[in-house]
Amino acid sequence: MATTEIYRYLFIDSETYALDPEGYLVDMADWSPEVAEALAREEGITLTSEHWEILQLLRDFYARYEMAPAMRPLVKAVQRALGPEKGRSIHLMRLFPGSPAKVAARLAGLPKPTHCL
């Protein structure tokens, strides 16, 4: 079993959460809406209902496929689940600036998507 390097910790109330060098949770079981909110603040994002529907979609995707989707599969999954207006790269970029697949996966408590730089 490979060990994950811990880079820093996230502190919420009296709880401590280990993060890897890229800021992803070391233990996915540590995820909670409060953790997502704290990680979002680090990204300069205030989570809205639109963010939460993407985060839930990602968590469902991971539960089904055991991987976080890269950008193209993410767009397709959002389009299939939430419709063509929300299933567009521009919509995801607005919600999760920079690299939507990476940022959203991080906030959803998932590992970094494969094939994402």
TrEMBL record:
Its main location: cytoplasm. It is found in: Cytoplasm. It comes from the Bacteria. The keyword Phosphoprotein does not apply. Signal peptide: none annotated. Keywords: Cytoplasm, Transferase. InterPro entries: DsrC-like_C, DsrC-like_dom_sf, DsrC-like_N, DsrC/TusE. Its EC number is 2.8.1.-. It is an enzyme of class 2 (transferase). NCBIfam families: dsrC_tusE_dsvC. Part of a sulfur-relay system. Belongs to the dsrC/tusE family. This is Sulfurtransferase.
